[in-house]
User: Fold this.
Amino acid sequence: MTENYEYKAGKNAPNYTQGKSGLLIRFGSRFLALFILGAIIAFIASVLAGNAQRERQNNPVERWEQIEKVLSPKVSSQKVGIQPLVKAGEESKSLSLADRVWSLAFSPDGKILATASEDTTIKLWNISTGKVISTLSGHQSPVISLVFSPDGKTLATASEDNTVKLWNTSTGEVTSTLSRHQSYVLSVAFSPDGKTLATASWDKTIKLWNSNTGKFISTLSGHQGEVYSVAFSRDGKTLATGSADNTIKLWNTSTGKVVSTLSGHQGKVYSVAFSPDGKTLATGSSDSTIKLWNNKTKKVKVVYTLSGHQGEVNSVAFSPDGKTLATGSSDSTIKLWNTTTGKVVSTLSGDKYGIWSVVFSPNSKTLAFTNYDKSVQFWNIHNLEQKFWIN
Assistant:
């Protein structure tokens, strides 16, 4: 019996396949290789799509847009305004806002409220009259966070355009634009002496800046996920950061080294805040809980885990007297907690679309919070009476 061989030229040596069975083996091998290659490409595409989806879900704006679609696909797009408390016989006043408000901040004297908007602008409001003092324009993307310096002369704003701007509150002019972050800037905080500014970003880093000159000082790296929130301790020696990696890190601001990594939350940490005396740290998470940590000793421990919200906790804020903690959630409620006992004092209802930011006035008497339906409400904390609102 004569065997029939086919020859295939190779670079260095001949390759033989034997008759029809050889052809089947050769083409079968090619088909298998193509099949495996296709499967690998499909797997890589799936991973990339998953990463993109997770990024959209974590995006501070798109996360709310997804919540909006679930709760109501017909959220009103009408303009809104700040409306002071109307006394008997007085005509109501209203000023328009162009879009959703993501962050709020009272000036140190309590006379001005700053609002950060999705329309890329910042507005400064006179609290007593309800009138806009000035509109600050310059960012190219939504403004996510803002804070006044301790002396009230400077306003720092963080944006999705990857920059932070420092504004002169008297003139409305930009004094510095800080642009070393590689992605969205999600949170800003001044040190108690006003000399240092901390910025937290989607790029997983925190940066420290000289707030007087706008010069870069250092980068704090260590989180494995986006950094959503930053806060200085009362003495300015410690910086707390909350991240998508489910942890809180405490940093020595002089050395830039991590002092402690706090674990315990089962979800992303969206908000961190020190009590006015610096002894307690509050953290709010996507796991629907708030934790109060004892910051008085070297080993920081959980004092209370506050449960009761039915949705993500987006914002936490201590009253200036330290007696009350306010928490805002995607469940459309604000809860007021006694910081000594860890018990709920009261629950306030916002709109049905969720609460994004909560902040106390400097005198502890008023709580302001922003709703996702383009409104800001103000409540008298002592009698829980709604004082005035954006509607």
